[in-house]
């Protein structure tokens, strides 16, 4: 008996919340009518309105003996998070049958990072739980954008980072009036800028020939890898400027820059350039030395007493 | 024999330069007169053993506990000389490599055949001993992976072949000569170019005189002595000269044994007219003290255009001469040898060096090489002294050959305050010769191979079974770029490179 | 007749590697010992790209190539090449490519050359109906069968070629300027460019993080492997099935792979304490993955090379590798020892898990 009642209550609560979550005074709203700007928990929130006076007679009539919280997630410890999650899951259940596109073709979305999300809900969410939420978000995002319901669209928008980091294109996407494509790349301490023009296989690095710049064959191969493996080494001329670091870093910085410049000339090469590993950034840098350590991690010799 | 120095000179002697003493007056010095090692020894100050020097930077004052490593096995070092022998060993054949069918040998026809451009010409087997004798092969060159040694026939080679052919075909006594300094970046094939020249010289039965490494004469490893009492500032290197004679005599045995002494040699009473030039050279090899006079006599014989009156029956026209010197840049600076006053001796004060550098200048009255021939001096780009004056001098020589007037503004001059070595500038100051057939000093820069030549060269690797790739134009062009524009030594590195099992 | 070579046909001299016996080995070494296959096509392709002349001119050129050029023609040609080069314009002709002759044709008319021809060729000439059919001979015969083409055929061929090229350019995807490579082998990745064994061996001989030096050593080792005499295989210690011993030096990477794989142990022994009780260690054999097996073998080879007298590290290792191939090395004993111990200790295989089970049941 009890369970049946709670189930019916839940349903009612869900419906109510989807209309307007009353307990979230400044929280995000899903209704079309009340489009309030998003606020964070750190901002001053207006005082919650007091609950109306309890009419015990009515309660006795309804035989509801205890106070029921508005949210079904009230006792979970992080109710706001679970409300979000339940909402998204119900959306997913509702629209699960809609056609989807592959993850690569779906629009790129910059979801809130974990600290920002914690700020938003004002609860300490473990990262694993947030990853679960992101999974649902990504699945919703895969619904074909052409027929995506407005409801889903709005729900997803809640979780976007302010601004659109992916909208800004730092690299140029077309060759200039002289037929040059430019690419930049970094590796270790080195940074390289490559100008790529169609030509017949001349490569100059800092104004020197490839042999003078890189005495090792391995480095020469690295630097020209993008052109080498795609059989284009005799079809382009390369002018590279590279600064900082050692020979390996310089060569691989050029490799990255060259791969990016080649993508400007021939965008359709991207998948195989990815496979050849020339447009994958190697973000590793030398780890800094820490106080109390001999190197980055090496501990001083431990001596008893 | 009298003392080379008077007693007045002896009083000038200081304590240290013991090694510069004149040869002992008693007998003919048969061994190396002296060695340089003593003055080179420096007093090495030992670091003072001091007490506590304070804490070192960012190192805790902790107890260092030595780890017990793996017990080091003490193996005896290889016997003396073995490492050097290994280092100097030249392997010219790899029996595993495939014989390249249809490979042409270098001979009179193929060396001028422009259709063979870009293909690899094998060196004839009998010639390999001659080339070994003149030390034409270097350890840094990749002979050891092919079935038999061969060199790629590139544009410069064919051009040189034609010139050699032309000189050989001219009538004796009226042959032209060629003077070149070969430069180029590292691994551009300068030494192999000299080797090709020597091979062509042997093909055409020229006399080949070669200094395989100019560095050996200036780094203080050979004995030296003042030339004579009259010229105390000139020095002679008898051991090195004897080696030169030995190389020349061995490599040119066939030619020299057919030529007879036809000049008077007052300095060498033992040399009789009518003996072969090979025997003459052997005098210098056996008696090192006489090596330099013997070399002078040999050179006089080789450059003779006619016999001394009375000795006509011994005279036959002399063949052209090829002189090659590798790493000539070492001769453009002070040597590691010291004079009597313990001042460094300039390379140009050695008669050996001076002789070969003087050949670059136009001869007085007659050509420096009256019987024709070629002077090919190559610079080196690895382990090379950087001499500003030499760089300028090379530019000047090129400008002079191009016809730029030395007083004009286009003529390259050294920077005003750079203090270039004037002797170097003077040594390469070779104006237009007055003798019509004598060539003017030119500077030839070796660049990379063309893409077609590079392809031919790489196909040679494939046909030897060393390169398991499909050779296409695209592929060859890719290697051409990776070799910095077809630098032949770099192409060789790429040809032997193994990344994956084919 | 002017000397004529065909560089493409001569590629058939690359030795045909014996078919491996077992199926799995065949699969593994198929990639290692694959001779080049497209070489005969390349000569044709080369002409496509370079020829923009009319067919008549081509036919004329071919006729010239067939006959000996006149002396003055030759001189003019030389002059042309030399002058052109100096002016740095135009590409010089490369005659050996345009006037190709199959090597077999040269051999058939030159008795002297027959004597010096490689054995494969000699055998082929002696008994053309031999039991072994080399892939190269088939290709050669194909080329011979073609014979000289008539002008009309030639023209038709060029027509189709031009058609194909124009088609190709039209077929290019948008966003491509030149045809993209159809498939990329695994070793065409920037970080995986060396074959796995080479990579692992190089990293294992690296000391103090000096990779460039290790790579230099590795190239010396491979050069020694390809110039040393072929190994005399000890029948008691055979290498894994693969190319025959005389063919190994010409493919040093396969040679090295074969050596390392042949002495790689299958198991290692885990010294587990606390199972037998009383502080005694129990030896538990563990199966190794391929990379682990190779690592063990490489480590042994490098260790035992330290006892050699050669002056250079690379020479020591290379000589040790050859000793392994010939069954003379102590590495074989090491591997046999491990295997023997492993077999003796195979009763312990379940020991650890049983112990755990027993512990969990006790609680």
Automatic annotation (TrEMBL), chain A:
GO terms for cellular component: mitochondrial small ribosomal subunit. The keyword Signal does not apply. The lineage of its organism: Eukaryota, Fungi, Dikarya, Ascomycota, Pezizomycotina. Keywords: Ribonucleoprotein, Ribosomal protein. NCBIfam families: PRK00132.1. Pfam families: Ribosomal_S9. This is Small ribosomal subunit protein uS9m. One of its GO terms (molecular function) is structural constituent of ribosome. Belongs to the universal ribosomal protein uS9 family. GO terms for biological process: translation. InterPro entries: Ribosomal_Su5_D2-typ_SF, Ribosomal_uS9, Ribosomal_uS9_bac/plastid, Ribosomal_uS9_CS, Ribsml_uS5_D2-typ_fold_subgr. It comes from Aspergillus mulundensis.
TrEMBL record, chain B:
InterPro entries: Ribosomal_mS29. GO terms for molecular function: structural constituent of ribosome. Keywords: Mitochondrion, Ribonucleoprotein, Ribosomal protein, Transit peptide. It comes from the Eukaryota. Transmembrane segments: none annotated. It is found in: Mitochondrion. The keyword DNA repair does not apply. The keyword Oxidoreductase does not apply. GO terms for cellular component: mitochondrial small ribosomal subunit. Belongs to the mitochondrion-specific ribosomal protein mS29 family. PANTHER family: MITOCHONDRIAL 28S RIBOSOMAL PROTEIN S29, SMALL RIBOSOMAL SUBUNIT PROTEIN MS29. This is Small ribosomal subunit protein mS29. It comes from Aspergillus mulundensis.
UniProtKB/TrEMBL annotation, chain C:
Residues 32-73, 110-149 are annotated as: Disordered. The keyword Transport does not apply. GO terms for biological process: translation. This is Small ribosomal subunit protein uS7m. Residues 49-73 have a biased composition (Basic and acidic residues). Keywords: Mitochondrion, Ribonucleoprotein, Ribosomal protein. SUPFAM superfamilies: Ribosomal protein S7. Residues 192-346 form the Small ribosomal subunit protein uS7 domain. Residues 36-48, 121-140 have a biased composition (Polar residues). Signal peptide: none annotated. It comes from the Eukaryota. Component of the mitochondrial ribosome (mitoribosome), a dedicated translation machinery responsible for the synthesis of mitochondrial genome-encoded proteins, including at least some of the essential transmembrane subunits of the mitochondrial respiratory chain. The mitoribosomes are attached to the mitochondrial inner membrane and translation products are cotranslationally integrated into the membrane. Gene3D superfamilies: Ribosomal protein S7 domain. Belongs to the universal ribosomal protein uS7 family.
